[in-house]
């Protein structure tokens, strides 16, 4: 049976990106990059918007506000290109141009449920906030990991990660600090029917 990881990289205030900020907010360091390179083989799950963005980067489109990719960003995109990717979309058309990408038009929750039951190894989301919400609500997420970078993007932040989430209890199973500034926390999530003080009488 496969294990499903929801994996986010965020600012301290819970944004997935910020206008005018580079990838990793420009704060990735050697410890963090070495750890990224040590990750096990994984199949990435994503929606159409993330696919369009990341496949564009793979094709050479540079993020807005940058003249060129930094070496760390380019290496990250290259690693994603080599990895297996499953894209859930009703709007994209086959064939997908990004290497090692498979298009799935079926309901994402049911498709991932089947992938978990019939597969092995690690499945991991990348970006795709609405997909992550749906998979969490369905109780399919085994691990919830957040890499928090030491910036607050209150003025420029985009893509608030936790909006629309259910209440979730989190049991910490790992935590690390990279390069003296990046915090990694990993949890086992449990979706709550109601908060502790909201139980029916």
Describe the protein in words.
With 201 residues, this protein is of the alpha/beta class. The chain has a single domain (3-194), classed as Dihydrofolate Reductase, subunit A (3-Layer(aba) Sandwich), CATH 3.40.430. Helix content is 25%, strand content 32%. The chain is built from five helices and ten strands; from the N terminus they run ββαβααββαβαββββ. The strands form two sheets. An eight-stranded mixed beta sheet has the order 5-4-3-6-1-7-10-9, with helices on both faces. A two-stranded antiparallel ribbon has the order 2-8. The longest helix has 12 residues, at 71-82. The chain is globular. It starts with a strand and ends in a 10-residue tail after the last strand.
Give the structural class: alpha/beta
Distance between the termini: 39 Å
Summarize model confidence as the mean pLDDT: 90
CATH architecture: 3-Layer(aba) Sandwich
Count of DSSP H/I helices: 5
Largest sheet composition: 8 strands, mixed
| CATH class type | Alpha Beta
Measured by DSSP, the beta-strand proportion falls in 25-35%
Number of domains: 1
Biggest sheet: strand arrangement: 5-4-3-6-1-7-10-9
Based on CA atoms alone, the radius of gyration comes out at 17 Å
CATH topology: Dihydrofolate Reductase, subunit A
**Low-pLDDT segments:** none
Q: SSE string, helix = H, strand = E?
A: EEHEHHEEHEHEEEE
CATH homologous superfamily descriptor: Dihydrofolate Reductase, subunit A
Helix content: 25-40%
Described by the principal axes of the CA atoms, the overall outline is globular
| Count of β-strands | 10
């Amino acid at each position: 049976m496969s294990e499903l990881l929801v994996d986010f990289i965020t600012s301290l205030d819970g944004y997935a990106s910020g206008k005018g900020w580079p990838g990793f907010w420009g704060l990735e360091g050697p410890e963090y990059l070495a750890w990224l390179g040590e990750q096990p083989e994984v199949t990435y799950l994503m929606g159409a918007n993330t696919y369009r963005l990341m496949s564009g980067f793979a094709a050479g489109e540079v993020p807005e506000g940058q003249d060129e990719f930094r070496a760390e960003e380019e290496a990250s995109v290259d690693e994603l290109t080599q990895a297996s990717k499953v894209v859930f979309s009703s709007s994209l058309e086959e064939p997908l141009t990004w290497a090692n990408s498979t298009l799935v038009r079926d309901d994402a929750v049911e498709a991932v449920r089947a992938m978990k039951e019939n597969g092995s190894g690690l499945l991991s989301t990348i970006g795709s906030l609405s997909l992550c919400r749906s998979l969490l609500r369905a109780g399919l997420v085994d691990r919830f990991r957040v890499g928090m970078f030491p910036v607050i993007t209150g003025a420029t932040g985009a893509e608030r990660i936790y909006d629309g989430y259910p209440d979730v209890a989190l049991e910490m199973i790992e935590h690390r600090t990279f390069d003296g500034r990046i915090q990694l926390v990993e949890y086992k999530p449990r979706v709550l029917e109601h908060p502790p003080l909201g139980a029916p009488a």
